[in-house]
Design goal:
By secondary structure, the protein is mainly β. It contains two helices and twelve strands, in the order E-E-E-E-E-E-E-E-E-E-H-E-H-E. The radius of gyration is 20 Å and the shape is globular.
Length: about 220
């Protein structure tokens, strides 16, 4: 397999810039053998058979993008990826400007010291950072913003639209996007059609942002 085998043109104007309403009116492509069927997500129950299992990822997105300032006044950004300590003080993170920030440098939010930059990780492209506030998770919720994908321009008015309706524990740096199209009513209809819904928590981190850098996608390390 080569990366070119799965490459395809995606015109920028076809990338949705705001959530569709209602959630389950998004388009759904159904593979039926060699045939491709075009439906919407709300049609899903008609393809459910009794005994089917529908697995949903109930991770919740953290407002993990922190827009901060260096002591010099320059802009800095920290994107929290994965918790490195039980008390949520230490995180693996992407930082900007990565080449200029030094280990030990403290970043501020409107004059308050909130993040200390630590060493690079073994991967080389991320850092360990420390949240210096007494309540790290409360600070993140207060000053962070949703880490929307780079192809989405602008901000999100309703932050809950970047969460699934069944999300639980805030831990992820991005949403499990297929699940964004489920509604409570659709989930109920899926169960009525005979499916069993099982929850798992799969935290979405750096790998969702990492481009495939190998010619053979099967050799891409995540």
């Amino acid at each position: 397999m080569h990366i070119s085998d799965i490459d395809y043109p995606l015109p920028e104007e076809l990338i949705a810039q705001k959530p569709i309403e209602p959630r389950d009116s998004a388009r759904l492509l159904v593979a039926d053998g060699a045939q491709a069927l075009h439906h919407v997500v709300s049609d899903l129950p008609q393809f459910i058979r009794p005994g089917d299992v529908v697995v949903v990822n109930d991770t919740r997105v953290l407002p993990a993008r922190l827009t901060l300032q260096r002591k010099t006044g320059g802009a800095a950004e920290v994107l929290l990826l994965e918790r490195r300590s039980p008390d949520a003080r230490l995180w693996e993170a992407l930082v900007r400007p990565a080449r200029k920030l030094k280990e030990g440098e403290v970043l501020e939010y409107f004059g308050k010291r909130v993040v200390r930059v630590g060493p690079r990780t073994e991967a080389g492209d991320t850092f360990v950072v420390e949240i210096t506030d007494d309540d790290p998770l409360a600070l993140i919720q207060r000053i962070g913003s949703m880490p929307l994908p780079p192809y989405i321009r602008g901000s999100l008015k309703d932050q809950e639209r970047y969460q699934t309706v069944y999300s639980q524990t805030p831990a992820s740096a991005a949403a499990p996007t297929a699940g964004l199209h489920f509604t409570p009513e659709l989930l109920a209809r899926v169960e009525q059609a005979g499916a069993v819904i099982k929850r798992v928590e799969l935290v979405v981190g750096l790998d969702t942002f990492k481009p495939i850098s190998t010619e053979n996608p099967l050799e891409h390390v995540i």
